[in-house]
Amino acid sequence: MPLCELCGQALRTEPEMRRHLQRAHLEREPRCPLCPFAAPGYEELRDHVDSAHPEPGPAVPSHCSSGASGPQLEARVRAPRGPLLGAGPGSGRQLYECPMCDLVCANCQILQEHVDLHLKEQSFSEDINVGELSDLELARQLQKEEDKQQGLEEARREREEFQKLQKQYGVDSSGGYKQQSLKRMEREVARGRMQPSEYHKRKADLMESLAFGVDDGKTKTSGIIEALCRYYHNEIKDVRRVWLSTGVDHFHSSLGDRGWGCGYRNFQMLLSSLLRNDLYNDCLKDITVIPCIPKIQSMIEDAWKEGFDPQGASHFSNRLHGTKAWIGACEIHCLLTSLRLKCQIIDFHKPTGPLGTHPRLFEWVLTYYSSNKEGGTKVVCTPKPPIYMQHQGHSRTIVGIEERKNRTLCLLVFDPGCPSQEMQKLLKQSSDTSLKLFRKFVSSLKDKQYQIVAVEGVLSSEEKVARCHASQIFTAERIP
């Protein structure tokens, strides 16, 4: 319960305390702080102080330092609460302490002005608090609107990215290998880079190739593994030992699949090696030649129809033929398994070496190719097929691995992005022959993730069915 510190009266609430102060202690005639003179108002009191007390104190200004009208406060000393007697320039007088702070005033009028200031400050503080709450609510509303706009913007970007990916990965309706081939040949004619007669001849070859589902062989280079074997026998200065896969034909991208066909071209490379190996004759008895890209797309669709990899099929809406859809390690694994080829997919899902490198991938490839029975042979031509290697946005074919004299490893890869003219340089075996196109050191492979598909043998019919069932939830061996 509030207690008046001027008279000791107990009040129930703060508003009653304010009314009590106003009526009991402040509504009186203003009195001179230096003598008992009582004035009817502030102007008369100021005139009295100026005329009756010029020497003891300075003239009283019309406004106190705080901005309130009335006589200037004479005393600003801290003292015990309650009415006090103090010595003044004239006679003894009663002093009053503010009930809201420790300020001591000479009379009630000065105290009244001072208390009014407290009340004004309190009202101003309440207004500030209300303003702060309003500002807080406004800030929340603004943040809510900003979050909403940001969400809409993110949704718009996601739609644009999805449409961009659809176009990039060929899952839109812009046509596939045939349409792209014809459009690019027409563009070459328009630019004067191809004669109309050449255009009609190549168009006829294209239609024949597509009709029979056979690759036209125009991007193929054969004999490179054999050339590599000869090269290492003659130029092996920095290499301690090298392991090579069985023979592989190199296929590079053409006008019809440039920008999206690397996965299909790497499958052609792998298949060209498998067709050379009698171990896989039974599995590949229905495949006597390398299929063209549209045919490979149909083969993957057939695997989906058998029940392989339903999640992957759903991703492509069960359709590849007639599109420019990119394929990866999962589709290659699915197709090989449907042909009864025993293979596994290894996922190097994060770097295993410094600076984002993947030394574990190199070690795995070395284990795959080496049998530890080579003796002192420096060039080992293994019966192993090449390895399909996928990373973000591109795929290549691993055809061998070097162990350098300093014990570091180096992969040998065929890249479908490399044109035939460059690949054929190795066949000439000139003095300036370089393996720069083929070599990939540990420091060269620094993508975040790599996946490889390796063929290991043949599946029985029962094993094929089991693997088809297992592909309902596609899994891969993860390293590490």
What does this structure look like?
The protein has 480 residues and is an alpha+beta fold. It has two domains: 1-158, no CATH class; 177-478, Alpha-Beta Complex (Cathepsin B, Chain A), CATH 3.90.70. It has helices spanning 14-26, 42-52, 108-168, 177-190, 196-212, 224-234, 262-274, 293-306, 310-315, 329-338, 359-369, 420-423, 425-428, 461-470; strands at residues 84-86, 93-97, 104-105, 220-221, 239-244, 250-251, 341-348, 379-381, 387-391, 394-404, 409-414, 439-441, 450-458, 477-478. The strands form three sheets. Strands 5, 7, 8, 9, 10, 11, 12, 13 and 14 form a nine-stranded mixed beta sheet that branches. The protein has a three-stranded antiparallel beta sheet with strand order 1-2-3.
What overall form do the CA principal axes indicate?
elongated
Query: What Rg, in angstroms, do the CA atoms define?
Result: 47 Å
Give the quaternary arrangement of the chains: single chain
Q: Given the structure, what is the number of helices?
A: 14
Number of E-type strands: 14
Helix % is 40-55%
CATH C-level name of the largest domain:
Alpha Beta
Q: Topology as H/E string? A: HHEEEHHHEHEEHHHHEHEEEEHHEEHE
- Sheet bearing the most strands, described? 9 strands, mixed
Q: Which CATH architecture of the largest domain would you pick? A: Alpha-Beta Complex
> Could you please say which CATH topology of the largest domain applies here?
Cathepsin B, Chain A
Strand content: 5-15%
Distance between the termini: 74 Å
Total domain units: 2
Low-confidence stretches: 56-90
